[in-house]
Amino acid sequence: MRILVCVKRVPAPGSKINITADGTAVDTTNLGFTVSPHEECAVEAAVQLIEGHGGDATVLTLGAVEAGEQLRYAVSVGIQRAVLLPTAGEEWDPQRTARAITSAIRQMESADGPFDAILFGNESADSGGFQVGIRVAHALGRPMVNGAKGLSIDDGIARVQREADAGRETYELPLPAVIGVKEGINLPRYPTMRGRLASKKVEVASIDPADATSGPMAGAVTGPTTIALRPPPERTSETVILGTGPDAAVAVVDVLDEIGVL
Amino acid sequence: MAPVANRTVLAVVEHDRGTVAPTTFEALTVARTVSDRVDALTIGATADAIAGDLAAYGVASVHQVHDDVLTDYGPEAWGEVVAHAVRALAPDVVMASGTDRGNEVLAQAAARLDLPFAANCTELRTGGGDGGGDGDGVEVTRIRWGGSLLEDATLPGGITIVTIAPHAVEAGPAATPGAAEPVPFTVRLDRSLGRSVVRGRVEREAGVTLATAPVVVGGGRGVGSAEAFAPLEELAAELGGVVGCSRAVTNNGWRNHADQVGQTGTRIAPEVYFACGISGAIQHWVGAMASKHIIAVNTDRQANIVTRAGYAVIGDLHEVVPAITAEIRRRRRD
Ligand SMILES: Cc1cc2nc3c(=O)[nH]c(=O)nc-3n(C[C@H](O)[C@H](O)[C@H](O)COP(=O)(O)OP(=O)(O)OC[C@H]3O[C@@H](n4cnc5c(N)ncnc54)[C@H](O)[C@@H]3O)c2cc1C
Ligand SMILES: Nc1ncnc2c1ncn2[C@@H]1O[C@H](COP(=O)(O)O)[C@@H](O)[C@H]1O
Predict the structure, then answer these.
(1) Which parts of chain A fold into alpha helices (H)?
(2) I need a labelling partner for A254 at 20 to 30 A (CA). Which of A46, A82, B107, B260 fits?
(3) Atom 16 (ligand 2): residue with closest C-alpha?
């Protein structure tokens, strides 16, 4: 079985997100980077599929060369191959991103054969566009379900479970299929010593991203274009310290009484 | 933003086997601020009866689609229907609610139309662009980072495809109801679209859920182990609530992800949220900030959750939480 999983390098902010002076980007000074939790789970799902069925899994990202760090993380937990679509580091809109990923997939598949399943995150942590995977699936003519909270593959069918308001739904996608994974589908493992070594040694393949702003795809409508980022209005409250240690219980229950939840 | 007279909005009605998703009415409420001509699209025969409910929200026509492939929800089939409707009806704006299904269907439609799509908008502005635009494009405010950041962005002119972030506005009926006139809309759908239609489902059991509980007792890394959640369970049970947790807890395998509050977990809005041993990282906070009252229990006076909460107790949760439960029981006895 051949699996592809797509991840995006995003900053990992702490208690608040700082914006750059020009107001259009997240100030990443002093911030670490990660992939979205949904994508961590997509990586874990890919590793589990390979463990169960044999074959190999590839991780792909479009981003700055530093995104190699996120590719190596995926290798350290059991992915075999890594592919980078290098950019200058600026944010690409979802259509541009999807076109470049689609074109890279076509290239990889014509060289090494089709991927049985391509996994995405439900949405990226930073831009939350809810669309790159869906656009790639459509361009490739493959079935796609987002929000997967369960996934198994048997007899050429990907069985996907997902939560809806009314209950847990099942989908049965014929392979090759595309699946958007949601956190909670599994518990991602931590890298092993051997994994860390493999991630240091892995050769990151580079594919020039086909760019919608030049070449045959130029002129296509894309967007949205960011004008400004800003924090949402914050509800400021003076914190009332009810006390220290267990003695504060009386004051806490007074508050509960006042609110009316007792 | 003032409605534009010659502009039309097509609202995609989200429903589950004929039951409307309540957030659809929020999207319709926003739609009326953009245009005074709002039409709706309902997908599948089970949705025909919804037309009546849409009149109060000012809907003029309800385009109804029937097809064997549409007997249950399917992202590709629904997306294909929306794409057909957009080509045939040429609306200026296509709108749905920013739910799992709403985002998925409009992304499927946008992919088919090769048009941009902006998910989870809280506002739409036209005419002025960024203040000095030529009035062609649409400016939106949308949420990013699960709600910890707002983005002002422009979408190019032409057809604007957006979802409205759930709970960004309160749903309200129109001053004058619409006719909500049913209009059959015929499309020829390829049978192969059935490949991603729901195959089966297990209904959810009734009961208090994290999203609807009046009281949530949340525990974070400070709780220390799966077993140490027992006192939090007791406090929650005492108040008719449920236990929630941070991602540090799910990552450690102490609790199931279904209990996680935050950007990639559940958004809660209880009367009271106890945040015990939780630091209040931005990704946790966005899931908890809609709580009416927050009571933080933390050893660290400087913890982010403590400075943001309405109330706080400084101390070890392992002592404080059982003391609260005991105090509630004592008062109930007296
Ligand atoms: C893209 C992305 C999405 C994320 N989504 C989510 C999400 O949905 N939900 C979520 O929760 N996190 C999410 N996170 C993780 C988040 O950034 C934090 O890492 C996480 O919330 C921290 O959990 P915590 O507060 O339990 O742990 P910590 O940050 O380690 O805080 C522990 C707190 O407990 C206190 N404490 C310790 N011992 C005691 C004691 N005995 N009594 C009282 N207090 C004590 C400490 O003072 C501290 O404040 C996400 C991260 C990323 C990058
Ligand atoms: N730059 C990128 N490189 C690789 N995969 C990406 C990139 N951006 C988005 N994706 C994938 O597409 C999913 C959805 O992204 P989005 O449409 O931005 O919410 C993410 O969870 C990733 O799996």
Answers:
(1) 37-53, 68-76, 94-112, 132-140, 193-201, 249-259
(2) B260
(3) A129
Within 10 A of A130 (CB to CB), how many other CB atoms are there?
26
Given B17, B110, B315, which is nearest A248 (Cβ)? B315
A21 touches chain B (CB under 8 A): no
Tokens of B214: 């009046």
Helix and strand numbers (H, E) in chain B are: 9, 17
Extents of the domains making up chain B: 4-195, 215-333
Matching fold, domains B4-195 and B215-333: yes
* CATH code of the domain made up of A2-213: 3.40.50.620
Q: What is the CATH number of domain B215-333?
A: 3.40.50.1220
Residue B220 Cα to ligand 2 middle (Å): 29
Q: Which of residues 109-168 of A touch B (CB under 8 A)?
A: 123, 125-131, 134-135, 137-139, 143-147, 162, 164-168
Q: Kindly give the number of the ligand 1 atom that is closest to the alpha carbon of B261.
A: 9
Complex ipTM over 0.85: yes
B40 to chain A, minimum CA–CA distance in Å? 22
Closest ligand to C-alpha of residue A182 is 2
Distance (Å, rounded) from C-alpha B292 to C-alpha B288?
9
Phi (first) and psi of residue B63, to 5 degrees: -80, 120
Residue B173 C-alpha, separation from nearest chain A C-alpha, in angstroms:
24
* Mean pLDDT value across chain A: 94
| Closest atom of ligand 2 to CA, residue A5 | 23
More confident of the two residues A223 and B279? B279
Band (pLDDT 50/70/90 cuts) for residue B137 is confident
pTM of the model: 0.96
